[in-house]
Design brief:
Mean pLDDT: 91
Helix content: 25-40%
Number of helices: 10
Number of domains: 3
Number of strands: 11
Distance between the termini: 43 Å
Oligomer: single chain
CATH architecture of the largest domain: Roll
Length: 301
């Protein structure tokens, strides 16, 4: 069963004369698809351009995709036609929903999105994860310049923070928290460090440790997911639709270093569950991945 999102776009893409015009053409495509209409005022207000320039942009878009829009004199706007096909990947449903989520969780200012009208949205609450911007600046510089950072890290095992020298090479997101992937010179191993638990971060000397040596980070795995076999036929079809499965499965790429977080978030930490309705999906290639799962011993930072 195939994903409902159709990745096909029109064969002819408008040839923008500048980067700014290219962005405006993508804005036209986006608004037509998700709001069903576009006019010159939408362009002049969002991009602060003149009415003549807005007219030129609409004409260029219409020339490339004439069947995508129809002018409605009563609305004084172009409306989406029944034969509309997106011109740009920027108009994908995933992009729209991600921006809608980001706006409603205050991760993005509305002015940074092409979305104009928004439906009412409810978001299940999650605790806010606070990250010190000054700390993040130093960590990014250390990664960029391959430098050591001296930090105080508040781990779970000790009441007081410990002083560490880290050689960071990447950032990682587990679905809830941001981590720093780094070589710990105290533990002599590559580990994950929750960024919010780092304090007193100071940029140090050049590091002799390269991220290319982080075997778990550089090992790429494929998770093959399928509906729980205990589900009814209708339940299986529902899960296939939810996950965009093809022939009853979907593949997810995952770094070995993030496998623990991926399995935990997907509810697949255990090999089986007594409740198909609760677990809903299973890891079809668990036997293949078991050696990698067995290596996921908990390492106290």
């Amino acid at each position: 069963m195939k994903n409902q999102e159709k990745p096909e776009y029109v064969s002819q893409t408008p040839q923008a004369s500048t980067w700014s015009q290219d962005r405006r053409l993508k804005f036209i495509d986006f608004r037509l698809r998700w709001e069903g209409r576009i006019n010159r005022t939408d362009l002049t207000e969002f991009f602060e351009i003149s009415m003549p320039q807005a007219s030129l942009d609409l004409a260029k878009y219409s020339e490339a995709a004439p069947t995508n829009l129809v002018y409605d004199p009563s609305l004084k706007a172009y409306v989406r036609s029944d034969s509309f096909t997106p011109v740009y990947g920027r108009s994908a449903s995933r992009t729209y929903l991600n921006e809608l989520l980001a706006i409603n969780t205050r991760l993005m200012e509305p002015v940074g999105s092409f979305i104009g009208w928004m439906p009412e949205v409810g978001v299940a609450p999650l605790p806010s994860r606070q990250i010190d911007g000054a700390v993040l600046m130093v960590l990014l510089q250390a990664i960029r310049e391959n430098r050591i950072v001296d930090v105080e890290y508040q781990g779970m095992a000790r009441a007081e923070p410990t002083v560490r020298a880290l050689s960071p090479h990447a950032l990682a997101y587990d679905g809830f928290r941001w981590h720093l992937r780094a070589y710990c010179h105290l533990r002599e191993d590559f580990r994950d460090f929750v960024i919010a638990r780092l304090a007193a971060v100071k940029l140090g000397q050049p590091s002799s440790v390269s991220g290319t040596k982080d075997q778990q980070w550089n090992t790429k795995l494929i998770l093959v997911l399928g509906p729980h076999p205990g589900l009814s036929a209708g339940g299986k079809k529902a899960i296939e639709l939810d996950y965009g499965m093809v022939d009853g499965q979907v593949n997810l790429g995952c770094r070995h270093a993030l496998l623990f977080y991926a399995l935990h978030r997907l509810g697949l930490s255990e090999s089986s569950s007594s409740s198909p309705a609760a677990q809903q999906i299973v890891l079809l290639n668990r036997d293949e991945l078991q050696p990698y799962i067995d290596q996921l011993t908990v390492k106290s930072a």
